[in-house]
DNA sequence: CCACGAATTAATCATTTGTTTTAATCATTT
DNA sequence: AAATGATTAAAACAAATGATTAATTCGTGG
């Protein structure tokens, strides 16, 4: 890794990303960012105008990354339904093992500034017309379960992937397992989730 | 509802609960709390010592409520496995429809102050020896799936209940459905989740 | 009615924090 | 080398914030 090659703007961005994701907007001061970046305080606003604007930059960056990854997964024509589930679960878990705080950061930020999505990220109802939703719909209909919205199934997929990382502190305490065991469990989920998803879809409705 | 019958301490507590849960610790000022409670600024610290202590009070309160509800659900001997799933899902969804911000508040707070759980809330590995975990374990073994930890299944239950509320902003935007439709979906999940859980447990392992 | 303690208020303090300013330094070009 | 513009540093400012103080009001028992 190049320690000195990074420009000042990048150093600020890296520090801000780390702190904002970890602590949120209000709990992070511009002085924290400057110190973490190892640069002078004035440079934060010199390059990014304001703390608010710097935060928005980080937020949009992460949001776009998420949306991009999502749109790839849900529209991949080379995979069938179960394979899509497996691929998406594996991808998300890989990402979450490295950046476990990002989902909480995004969800928290969206409550504070929901408008950012519309203005700065190109986000519409990309889910509605996706290949994945069509395939889920078809699979449900094949089981005579057309009363269930495909969106319910998609929510389950995301929940099974993301929730264990968001709720890790509580879950780990309530179960009493250590960090290594928890990581092992998360890795097991890579392949389990797709099977669970198929089971939910194909089980009989009583 | 009695508007004036509430004591000053309760007024402060109510205001603090609302604001802390909504915005978090750092984003909430003591002046916000005083204004929301309709009382003088000095009274906040007069009754609760410090902002930090007031926050801890709210946090412990919510955490205890959660743990209490959980321990009831997972140890109910009058219900079988699927009935437990159904009851717990129904309970959580009822609570989440009224207080959708509580989970995010708890999860966020636990990252900031994980010690509070140990010191102020009686929390141990209550899950490990619970009736629910034993029943999940038995059901898995009956399917010859003893490789899967029962904790995985429990995580799924919580995720299916809580995640759609935590991630509501993103999910609603990505799908383009309105508030009423979303609430309708959440109500449908009351009964769906238990069936999904059973499907995940009883499906064949390939 | 008075006295005493609790409750409430307005004012103030000491820090913190976002932001700006002004001057100094560095790098590159002429 | 001089000049020019970009970059960095130190200091300062105004507003916000957690906390405290001192005075005032309120309620209740004697």
SSE order and pairing:
2 copies of one chain form a homodimer.
Chain A: H1 8-23, H2 30-37, H3 42-48, H4 51-74, H5 81-98, H6 102-112, H7 115-120, H8 131-142, H9 150-166, H10 168-175, H11 179-202
Helix pairs in contact in A: 1-2, 1-6, 5-9, 5-11, 8-9, 9-11
Chain A binds a DNA duplex (30 and 30 nucleotides) through helix 3.
Explain this structure to me?
The structure is a homodimer of 206-residue chains. With 206 residues, chain A is mainly α. Chain A is built from 11 helices and no strands. The first copy, chain A, is globular. The mean pLDDT of chain A is 91. The first copy, chain A, binds a DNA duplex (30 and 30 nucleotides) through residues 8, 29-31, 39-46, 50-52.
Short structural description:
Chain A is mostly helical and 206 residues long.
- Residue-averaged pLDDT of chain A: 91
Largest sheet of chain A: none
- Please report which band the strand proportion of chain A falls in: under 5%, 5-15%, 15-25%, 25-35%, 35-45% or over 45%: under 5%
Helical/strand content category of chain A: mainly alpha
Termini separation of chain A comes to 57 Å
Task: Supply Rg of chain A.
Answer: 20 Å
Helix content of chain A: over 70%
Largest interface, with Cβ-Cβ < 8 Å? A-B, 58 and 58 residues
Number of domains of chain A: 2
In quaternary terms, these chains amount to homodimer
Residue stretches of chain A low in confidence (pLDDT < 50, at least 5 long) are: none
**Coarse shape of chain A:** globular
Question: Helix segment count of chain A?
Answer: 11
């Amino acid at each position: 890794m190049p320690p000195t090659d990074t420009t000042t703007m990048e150093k600020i961005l890296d520090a801000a990303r780390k702190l904002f994701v970890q602590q949120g907007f209000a709990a992070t001061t511009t002085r924290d960012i400057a110190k973490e970046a190892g640069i002078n305080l004035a440079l934060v606003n010199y390059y990014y105008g304001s703390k608010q604007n710097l935060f928005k930059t980080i937020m949009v960056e992460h949001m776009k990354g998420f949306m991009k990854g999502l749109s790839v997964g849900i529209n991949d024509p080379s995979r069938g339904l179960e394979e899509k589930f497996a691929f998406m679960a594996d991808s998300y878990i890989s990402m979450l093992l490295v950046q476990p705080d990002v989902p909480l950061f995004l969800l928290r930020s969206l409550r504070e500034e929901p408008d950012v999505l519309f203005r700065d990220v190109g986000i519409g109802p990309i889910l509605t017309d996706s290949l994945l939703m069509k395939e889920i719909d078809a699979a449900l209909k094949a089981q005579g379960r057309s009363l269930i919205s495909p969106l319910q199934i998609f929510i389950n997929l995301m929940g099974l992937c993301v929730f264990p990382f968001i709720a890790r502190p509580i879950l780990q305490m309530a179960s009493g397992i250590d960090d290594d065991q928890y990581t092992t469990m998360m890795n097991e989920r890579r392949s389990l989730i797709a099977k669970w998803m198929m089971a939910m879809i194909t089980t009989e409705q009583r």
